[in-house]
## 1
Amino acid sequence: MIKVTTSPTIRLDSQVKALQAAGHTIINLTVGELDFETPKPVLTAVAQALQANHNKYTTPQGLPSLRQAITQYLFKQHGLSYTPDQVIVTNGAKQALYSAFQVLLHPGDEVLVPMPAWVSYGEQIHLAGGQVVPIQLDAIAQSITERTTVLVLNYPNNPTGAVYSPSQLAILAKLAEQHHLWVVSDEIYERIIYPGTTFQSFGQLYPSRTIIVNGVSKSGAMTGWRVGYAAGPDEIITAMTALQSHLCGNVNNIAQIAAQAALQLDDSIWQTFMQQLLERRTTIMNWMKQQPQLQCIPPQGAFYCWLNIQGVTADSEEFCERLLHRWQVALVPGKYFGQDGYVRLSFAHSLTDITLALQRISQCVDSYDIL
Ligand code: PMP
Ligand code: GLU
């Protein structure tokens, strides 16, 4: 039987939900899932689609109108020029990544993954027969061998919130081109950018061999609708579409209509989301100033704080267990992202929960001095 482990973020979130269901009051800052409601125009579009009996298969690649909306969105946001044929709609960004690795990799191919990295890349690459090569960005050139075929990029980054600058991106694009690498650019947090940072899509720099991955989970606060997409060169999208035709047929028809409405939303809804995220981020950064034993580089994007807890302990799992069992706050151990001595705090949750959680994290940190 094939060896595959459960996503640790999802496992942890499920454990916390089970504890909550058993009556424990736990503040759950594990999962990266925005607490905002699905925007009203999306619900209206869905209600209309239900009335109009949208109950049939769609083409495996996705509804043409949705793919058109995706190309318009990518052009408006990032000046990218894709045709609807160069886009595939998937069950979340997760499936876009999975399918991209399946069609790109041959057994034994090496895939460069900058660390720390989101929890699913490793398993997805293994499932496609590839080998993960964990890298530090400044040492990337030394890690390239004749077996290297893919570079994975993820910015804004989960878990650090870091965003590559245009000059870093230019170096990466040059390197990828020199070594004829495919680049899987996971841009799912592309809309969550804080003041002072600019986002540039990798598709602008290296379109011939970049597969952009995105979706509405984060930008539409629509995690449960499970709509993601990939945009890239024709041959890759064609192969991913063929795979999709055997794998799941297509993404749920109604969910595709919901995603289309989300992509066409007025910017003002997004601005309201961003104001709230900014307020949460500021609250955490102000709290950090009173925490001499903790360090955190302010996230430039996404909704995670990557807390360096090495002033307290090097063992992120022990820290999270202590915090959960004694202070009823759940965070994700950095170990799951390939870097112990850190924990990830998701601020996709309410300010009330965050404020209470911060007080308790301080108490947990203090408990190490007492012992
Ligand atoms: N990439 C990253 C970096 C993520 O954090 C997530 C969140 N689950 C995904 C991909 C997958 O998102 P989706 O919900 O669209 O599958
Ligand atoms: N991306 C989110 C997270 O990292 C959702 C959970 C998952 O898909 O792993 O928390």
## 2
Amino acid sequence: MRDLISIVIPIYNERENIEELYERLKRALSDFDYEIVFVDDGSKDGSTEIIREIAQKDGRVKGVILKRNYGQTAALSAGFEVAKGDIIITMDGDLQNDPEDIPRLLEKIREGYDVVSGWRRNRKDPLIKRRLPSSIANWIISKITGVNLHDYGCTLKAYKREILEDLSLYGELHRFIPALASMNGAKVTEIVVKHHPRRRGKSKYGLERIPKVLLDTLLVKFLLSYRTRPLHLLGGWGLLSFFAGFFIALYLSIQKLFFGIELSRRPILLLAVLLMLAGIQLISTGLLAEMLMRTYYESQGKKPYSIKEIVTWKRESST
Ligand code: UDP
Ligand code: MG
């Protein structure tokens, strides 16, 4: 049986792009068994009606219409929920990604990879506003998460269905799906894809992404390394801080008790108090985080691991 391929496309005010994208997808996918899931993320420019029209005349197209604008990550999640495919492809709805790259992504999945990410080597976006911050971000993200990709921001990606099933996405974490998936043991790779300048419609992102992506990187690093043992991270720094403060205080006390040096003239006393208090707070936060983590796993019956297979001795059946 042939694999069903779902193309999930978030759409927010892309009126002028949808029809052409749809036509080009049909051409690129004619050899495949596919469905297209357009997720309308609260568009106000008439995109909704265009999606509705296409979905009503073509059985291979589904329209998922959200109640309001939730953002690209939520729109993608909604699409994943509806998509039935064994392989899921995500792409932008603005024609910046090229449908002709899809067969090459699928080839890599067939080779056995779980996630294939697009790399816009020749990216057609403004330098200062987009390409520069994004290359810095890509460098930081790959160093911190240990998943080495050149282009996290590219929406054109392919996933095996199982990978997305174990994933819950919040905020703007769609950029980090490969990193989060590799946390669950996925095999990740990338291929160079084409990229086109945006010809119609407006880009939805600007420089305000920078602090958001930075914070998300921190969050993902935390999830990757400390999700099941937050006390090791927070408590580690807490202990360090507490003992640094403690030894300064000890040193000051010895000077006061044995040499009569007045504490009122020692500003370093403030540092000692600050370090000890910060230490206590970090350790308590770590303990709270442990409780929260347990509630998270145990209340939902989630496991901190997932078993790939169980191998066991099998008796040879005699005939
Ligand atoms: N998008 C969305 N909801 C949003 C913002 C964007 O569904 O709140 C969609 C948008 O329609 C496009 C894709 O996400 O299909 C990427 O957006 P955009 O092209 O503006 O991002 P850029 O290519 O400039 O990074
Ligand atoms: Mg775009």
## 3
Amino acid sequence: MSATANLARIAALTSLKPATAIVLGSGLGGFVDTAEEAVTIPYSELDGFPPPGVSGHAGALVLSRIAGCPVAILSGRAHYYESGRADVMRPALATVAALGADTVILTNSAGSLRQDMPPGSVMLIDDHIAFSGRNPLIGEPNEARFVGMTEAYDGKLRDRARAAAEAEGITCPGGVYIWFSGPSFETPAEIRAARALGADAVGMSTVPETILARFLGLKVLGLSAITNFAAGMTGAELSHDETKAVAPEGGAKLARILTRFLSDQAA
Ligand code: HPA
């Protein structure tokens, strides 16, 4: 992949210098409609960007302003389970870093392991557990691969996100996100194990992107829109259709938190 070729392609279309990149998870794509003066570049026109994947994922880099703040929105992500490659988002993240972003906001939809965090809630990711055992930096040739992950999710950004949620009147508990590879959902026994390990929410994305972002020197903020109680908590079977259908509810709250967060940043 060539970040340089991507930079030239982008520079031909816009001079916007994004300070913040945002990865939109499944069902959260509507946020992109709030972008002002948007320049939209399909992933297919950018080297190394993910091919079209799970339904509900548009697949475009959108350079624009939200609440006055210059942003690079990665609308649509690729998952480890689509290709078996944990580093599938690396070229996209490297490109937004090369464009000048110093922060990436990772969003996802997730299952809740907590009774007090029902579908429609938003969780601020305080920390994660890479339960899939995969790492996107395997094979990275030099010592930069030994990335510190003690504060993977930046403390100051989390404080600002909490303040933004409070200003919007939205309850946004902090919690630990655990990454299962998918694409099958978890079993009830796996969810009980995850809870015993300290997890609050479960999903199939984000963690490899956080590791890549830290490797690339980006600060990370993570937010989960809760779409369902995790396996075994209600007796109902889980389905992708259900998670997609519920995602916009938490997604709308998440979008309000993000917009407030960005307008505070622009102020
Ligand atoms: N498990 C894994 N990924 C998910 C879930 C879940 O329960 N809900 C939304 N994404």
